[in-house]
Design a protein that fits this description.
This protein is mostly helical and 60 residues long. The chain is built from 2 helices and 2 strands; from the N terminus they run βαβα. Strand 1 (2-3), helix 1 and strand 2 form a beta-alpha-beta unit. The relative contact order is 0.17.
Amino acid sequence: MAVASYFLAPGHFADKVRREALAAGATAVSPVLGAAPEVADLIVHRYDEALRTVPVAAAV
């Protein structure tokens, strides 16, 4: 069994998932995503989408 961890940075939770997954019998655990340009692109894309759905406040 392989486990895909979707953590953005190393640390407590990523380490805990790796330890527990291996203890439960996983043969592989993916590393953290880190500074993946795809993640940054997705964040920018979702931000742009959110801006298009927020109504513009009326001028006073």
